[in-house]
């Protein structure tokens, strides 16, 4: 858990996070819409996207240990 806290400490400021969300949100929504178009329920598609993002954050936190 310390690694995740260390990672959070290095996150950019609120404005940068807001800008990043603005840039990425349309792409994420497109991914979810494509999954829904393939027959997946919207909540399931969103959960999978969140799970992938969570896995990526955990991978980054492991890299900080090395």
Describe this structure in words.
By secondary structure, the protein is mostly helical. It has 3 helices and no strands. Helix 1 packs across helix 3 (42-65).
Provide a brief overview of the structure.
This protein is 85% helix and 0% strand. Helix 1 crosses helix 3 and helix 2 packs across helix 3.
Secondary structure: elements and pairs:
Blueprint: H1 2-9, H2 14-37, H3 42-65
H-E order: HHH
The radius of gyration computed from the alpha-carbon positions, rounded to a whole number of angstroms, is 15 Å
The global form is: flat
Proportion in helices: over 70%
Q: How big a fraction of the residues is strand?
A: under 5%
Q: Could you list the spans in which at least 5 consecutive residues all have pLDDT below 50?
A: none
Average predicted confidence as pLDDT: 86
Structural class: mainly alpha
Oligomer: single chain
Helix tally equals: 3
Described by strand count, sense and barrel closure, the largest sheet is:
none
Distance between the termini: 15 Å
List keywords for this structure.
mainly alpha, 3 helices, flat
């Amino acid at each position: 858990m310390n690694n995740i806290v260390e990672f959070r400490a290095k996150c950019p400021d609120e404005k940068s996070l807001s800008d990043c969300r603005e840039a990425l949100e349309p792409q994420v929504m497109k991914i979810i819409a494509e999954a829904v178009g393939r027959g997946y329920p919207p909540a399931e598609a969103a959960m999978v996207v969140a799970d992938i993002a969570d896995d990526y954050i955990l991978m980054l936190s492991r890299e900080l240990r090395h």
